[in-house]
């Protein structure tokens, strides 16, 4: 294929790869997608068939100006996010470039725009397939730049040449692969060891808004959890660093928000505006309570972007660490980072997973603290039916724990779980759930239990978060989805604090559904991508450098202990290395000497051309570094028409040797003879 057409093909492939990096971050705009694909394939067809372009230069420029005007209005009048508008700008500008007449500079601009699309994709996505697109983009970019420079060197800035040369693809692709691998290795080195920058800049809501996990905020309406459970999108991935699956409880609650006030339909936090700030200690940890337990479960949590600033952790958190933000706030033992993230966040959570002994809870008869009793007992004006039910269930002779279990068992046995609610009744939602429909989501079960316990003056509150999750044995971590959303109850015991109770029947969630080998492997790749690429930070760098240092010290120790002067292994190793080197040298001597051999012919031609350039410089005709040999020749002809015919012939011979590889003695003699003639003109 001709160079010009090859350049067009790879330029369009590069553009398609750049645009695809934007597509994978969310559901695409279908109209824009079809428009883009139409423009791209129409442009490629026009280039390959030498057809007439759809837009002339004047109309293309007018469209570009109109586009800037419209996008400017969206920024300054409608306050749209600047990065979002810039992304749309580069997409539409590329569309205009596709449909307009393409000179050499236009190919250059399309390449540059494709690179900006790739950068925009990095801002707006955490998808693992972005890594594959990045590798493909690098390979296409190297080939495209090669072709661009060959075309520029061969033809200068002239376009529309029909007698295009053909060339072999094998050396081009080989060189492109070698350079691409080198670029990837260099990029990985920079990525691994370049100091990380903290912050949440260069993020965009262009495509992330629709992909933010719902999570939970500081209020929840009856029926809300059921809506969240309809979505199976991943919320977070959690790996226990010091516990195996066997050592963990059968059911793990991923605690989010504790709510203390209920008006009959909506749960909220009464004192949500009085968030207490928690400071880091000297170890960089946010200590959440003064637990004396040494046996805490350490979790490494990689959370997807959410529309909430709630921090999730297993069961009862005691500390949080390695967090990408400075501040932490607390309300009702719920924790918030106070920021807004449209990318993943990674942190460590330290949790108490203790399952309290039944006998210990039965014997906990201490008096409730006044602030606990005032805040977590009593409720809204309940109906007479709820009041009568609480009186019926309460047994004065029972301990607090026994009364709690009576309420929990009553709800589990007499009410059914459903995700399809019938809201046609006229009674208040909780009354309809308890006495009429007797079916509901998990928040109905938890709400009913909290209201009944508070009528018995037992401190309790509703907690939202997630439960269970899918355990992936490949990687040994849990995948928690939005469909694992759940609501449960915490009851206060004076000696042991807040204890978890769950009145929802167990068929609410299929705990630990698990993965087969293929789905588990794919999910593990996503986890590794998020953990070690998207969320790679300075702590990971320190750990890698520490491991390298430790391994280096271990290798040095082993070598120093084994390779002593009196150790025969030392002599054997030296002899083996020398023999291996000699055998390699003998077997591959032709290849080795072909690499180090000096190509005298090519050097003579290049040296003669450089000498002629030095001569032209003395004549006031200096070749700038950005000019190709043909561009400079055109420049010389425009200044001194046909005066330096010898220089024209020297340039032609130089180009022929450079591009065709023809290197005979006759060429060298010719170029030297022309140089001698050129010098005589001084």
**Roughly what is the average pLDDT, rounded to an integer?**
78
Strand order of the largest sheet: 7-10-13-8-2-18-17
The value of Rg in angstroms is 36 Å
Q: Which range best describes the helical content: under 10%, 10-25%, 25-40%, 40-55%, 55-70% or over 70%? A: 40-55%
Largest sheet: 7 strands, antiparallel
- Total beta strands: 20
Structural class: alpha+beta
User: What is the end-to-end distance?
Assistant: 44 Å
Which regions are unreliable across 5 or more consecutive residues at pLDDT < 50?
A: 156-165, 197-212, 594-602
The DSSP helix count reads 22
Beta-strand residue fraction? 5-15%
Principal-axis shape: elongated
Can you characterise this structure?
With 682 residues, the protein is of the alpha+beta class. The protein has 22 helices and 20 strands. Strand 4 (261-262) and strand 5 (266-268) form a beta hairpin.
Kindly summarize this structure in a few lines.
The chain is α+β, with helices and mostly antiparallel strands and 682 residues long.
Helices and strands, with pairings:
Layout: H1 3-23, H2 30-49, H3 57-76, H4 82-99, H5 104-124, H6 129-155, H7 170-193, E1 219-221, H8 224-228, E2 234-240, E3 253-259, E4 261-262, E5 266-268, E6 276-278, E7 285-287, E8 297-303, E9 313-314, E10 316-321, E11 328-331, E12 334-336, E13 345-352, H9 358-362, H10 370-376, H11 384-393, H12 400-414, E14 416-417, H13 429-436, E15 439-440, H14 442-455, E16 460-467, E17 470-472, E18 477-481, E19 485-493, E20 497-501, H15 517-534, H16 538-562, H17 568-587, H18 589-596, H19 600-618, H20 629-639, H21 645-660, H22 665-679
Parallel strand pairs: 14-15
Antiparallel strand pairs: 1-5, 2-8, 2-18, 3-9, 3-16, 4-5, 6-11, 7-10, 8-13, 10-13, 11-12, 16-19, 17-18, 19-20
Helix pairs in contact: 1-2, 1-5, 1-6, 2-4, 3-4, 4-5, 5-6, 6-7, 11-14, 12-14, 19-21, 19-22, 21-22
